[in-house]
Specification:
CATH class: Alpha Beta
Structural class: alpha/beta
Helix content: 40-55%
CATH architecture: 3-Layer(aba) Sandwich
Number of strands: 7
Oligomer: single chain
Bound molecules: NADPH dihydro-nicotinamide-adenine-dinucleotide phosphate
Shape: globular
Radius of gyration: 17 Å
Order of helices and strands: EHEHEHEHEHEHHE
Distance between the termini: 41 Å
CATH topology: Rossmann fold
Strand order of the largest sheet: 3-2-1-4-5-6-7
Number of domains: 1
């Protein structure tokens, strides 16, 4: 029996990347996982199939975040999926992972791009947490994915880093609010982590990115998923409001 047996989890943006790895890891521990995506249904279905092939339980939920009605749509699908499988709408673990990067320098960032980044990366997690408080039982877990960029300078991602700075505030303040219910909430900050970005197919670029880590390699999605799984577990009951550096030592300088 896994450490999360009988638990339910929602991982936003789990059709790819770190979210995918986190969904698979939580399912391996026994959780029933809602695999959330926005555009790539095939990818989300593949994650569900991978989990089921290994004897786990999962279902896909679609909702575009950062647009009006996003949280309502997300929880319609989530609660329906949970109810069908468990008979209740209890959500034990919420992982706010979905996010978008800017990829434009400060001079060229438009107000529209800024608003979009903020809506997906910061506003959506706040309102997802607000809504999830109805579903989270005492002892629940919330993990928000931030970024090492809140601690190192990158002039090409200033607006993005601002959104992640906002995300980190969620853990600090909600931790006080939710402590009496034994609900923990923490931020996990990945460093450069392999995803579908074509840059990861160029050996020279990967070498440069790897050199930023104390371990001289880029992060793998599983590196971050394992940290999230710990924070989601009973063993992490005494950790809340924390910033967890999961950058592979990149922040050491
Ligand atoms: P990916 O870019 O590989 O995947 C993004 C996921 O989020 C996908 O599942 C995608 O769904 C979903 N998503 C994107 N935009 C929206 C939206 N508007 N509404 C709903 N879902 C959306 O992610 P990564 O693994 O690279 O990153 C995961 C998290 O980690 C993000 O918050 C990112 O900012 C953060 N991070 C990433 C780093 C890295 O180097 N990769 C470094 C530091 C932090 P779909 O497949 O349907 O498009």
């Amino acid at each position: 029996m896994g450490s999360l047996s009988g638990k339910t989890a929602l991982v936003t943006g789990s059709s790819r990347g770190m979210g995918r790895a986190t969904a698979i890891r939580l399912a391996k521990e026994g959780a029933l996982v809602a695999v959330h995506y926005t555009s790539n249904k095939d990818a989300a279905d593949e994650v569900v199939a991978t989990i089921e092939k290994d004897g786990g339980r999962a279902f896909a939920v679609r909702a575009e975040l950062g647009v009006p009605g996003d949280v309502h749509e997300l929880f319609l699908g989530l609660e329906q999926g949970l109810k069908e499988r468990t008979g209740t709408t209890t959500l034990d673990i919420l992982v706010n992972n979905a996010g978008v990067m800017g990829g434009v320098n400060a001079e060229d960032t438009t107000p529209e791009q800024f608003d979009r980044l903020y809506a997906v990366n910061a506003k959506a997690p706040f309102f997802i947490i607000q809504r999830a408080l109805k579903n989270l039982p005492d002892g629940g877990r919330i993990v928000n994915i931030s970024s090492g960029l809140t601690h190192v300078a990158n002039p090409e991602e200033i607006a993005y880093a601002m959104t992640k700075g906002a995300v980190e505030q969620l853990a600090r303040h909600f931790a006080k609010l939710l402590g009496p219910r034994n609900i923990t909430i923490n931020s996990v900050a990945p460093g450069i982590t392999r995803n579908g970005n074509p840059a990861f197919n160029i050996p020279e670029v990967v070498e440069q990115m790897a050199a930023l880590s104390a371990f001289n390699r880029v992060g793998e999605p599983q590196d971050v998923a394992d940290v999230v799984a710990f924070l989601a577990s009973a063993d992490a009951r005494w950790v809340t409001g924390a910033f967890i550096d999961a950058t592979g030592g990149t922040l050491l300088g």
